[in-house]
Design a protein that fits this description.
Layout lengths: L1 H10 L2 E6 L3 E7 L5 E7 L2 H9 L6 E5 L4 H11 L3 E5 L5 H22 L5
Parallel strand pairs: 1-4, 4-5
Antiparallel strand pairs: 1-2, 2-3
Length: 118
């Protein structure tokens, strides 16, 4: 049974979709472990083009945003893929990087303007 699960995992692709206001960027980690990047518009036509690139066995992660839940539903209905909507700020490695960037900007702003800490 464990061997069957490993074989199934090897056949699956992993998809990450970053949603912008008007466009998306999609990364596909293929069955051969190689990554490909696809970009397109978030219009109805653009989303349909994105869905045509997906396979039922794909595991899809969408960045949380205005359209994320609509797209998740459309992907599940049109393609049948498993979809997760993720809040990037809650992911440890992204949240930590964002905090580090905020702190660095505060440090740079304080240092360059001669400001003092309160």
């Amino acid at each position: 049974m464990l061997r069957n699960k490993k074989m199934e995992e090897m056949k699956r692709r992993y998809i990450g979709i970053d949603l912008g206001k008007r466009a998306y960027t999609m990364a596909i980690i293929g069955k051969n472990s190689k990554m490909s990047i696809h970009q397109g518009k978030i219009s109805d036509y653009g989303r349909q083009a994105l869905y045509r690139l997906l396979e039922k066995s794909d595991k899809v992660a969408l960045e949380m945003g205005n359209l994320a839940f609509i797209m998740a539903q459309e992907i599940m209905e049109c393609v049948g893929s498993k979809v997760r909507v993720l809040n990037a700020a809650k992911l440890p490695f992204i949240g930590e990087a964002a905090n580090e960037n905020r702190q660095r900007r505060r440090d740079e702003t304080g240092a360059s303007s001669g400001g003092t800490e309160r």
